[in-house]
Amino acid sequence: MIKKDIVNKVAGMMNLSLSEAEEVVESVFTVVKNALVSGEKVGLHGFGNFRVVKKNSRPGRNPKTGEEIMIAARKVITFKASDKLKQAVNHLPPEQDE
Amino acid sequence: MTKAELVEKVSEKINLAKKDTEVIVNTVFNSITDALSKGDKVELRGFGSFRLRKRNSREGRNPKTGATVVIPAKRIPFFKPGKDLRETVDN
């Protein structure tokens, strides 16, 4: 599924033109993105939480050359699915995974 | 930020009634849930992608009784931020 599929669904549901629906869907992700960029956690009830986590710098190794390098401190986004979402994806047998 | 705050911000941004915006926000995240529950992956350009990851079954222990139990294999929703989001957050 890609963004366009969501846009089509929203357009049909809300009786909006495709370009209007696209604008709304786009702004949903932009607003979430901006919150995360400012370091804010985004909690969407029934879906999950997006969080920005600070990672300290740590020593690492280039797996190809074996050379030791320092992995710089950085901020990463983590997503934790809500129980509802976890349950929704677990009715399929695990064998069907890619 | 909560879902209500998200709805409010989006509603202001595009000048749409809060009620309608709320329906749309719910539709957006419900359709991601639906796609994942069908085993589909969701790719959102500029934001990131959602897919399922398999967790193998493993042995665990009931912390209260110490009894060994088998935790069955399961799938978990996994979010991978897109390059743009990843880099913007880190700066």
List keywords for this structure.
heterodimer; A: 98 residues; alpha+beta; HU Protein, Chain A; three-stranded antiparallel β-sheet; two-stranded antiparallel ribbon; B: 91 residues; two-stranded antiparallel sheet; 3 helices; elongated
Explain what the structure shows:
The complex is a heterodimer of chains A (98) and B (91). Chain A is of the alpha+beta class and 98 residues long. Chain A has helices at 3-14, 18-37, 83-88; strands at 42-44, 48-55, 58-61, 68-71, 74-81. Chain A has a three-stranded antiparallel beta sheet with strand order 1-2-5. In chain A, strand 1 (42-44) and strand 2 form a beta hairpin. The longest helix of chain A has 20 residues, at 18-37. Chain A is elongated. Chain B has 91 residues and is an alpha+beta fold. Chain B is built from three helices and five strands, in the order ααβββββα. In chain B, helix 1 (3-14) crosses helix 2. In chain B, 44% of the residues lie in helices and 30% in strands. Chain B is elongated and about 55 Å long.
- CA radius of gyration of chain A: 19 Å
Could you tell me which chain pair has the largest interface and how many residues each side has? A-B, 52 and 51 residues
Major sheet of chain B: order of its strands? Answer: 1-2-5
SS elements, strand count of chain A: 5
Low-pLDDT ranges of chain A: none
Strand content of chain B: 25-35%
For the report, how would you describe the main beta sheet of chain A?
Answer: 3 strands, antiparallel
| Tally of separate domains of chain B | 1
Largest beta-sheet details of chain B? 3 strands, antiparallel
Can you say what the CATH homologous superfamily of chain B is? IHF-like DNA-binding proteins
Structural class given helices, strands, pairing of chain B? Answer: alpha+beta
Low-confidence parts of chain B lasting 5 or more residues at pLDDT below 50?
none
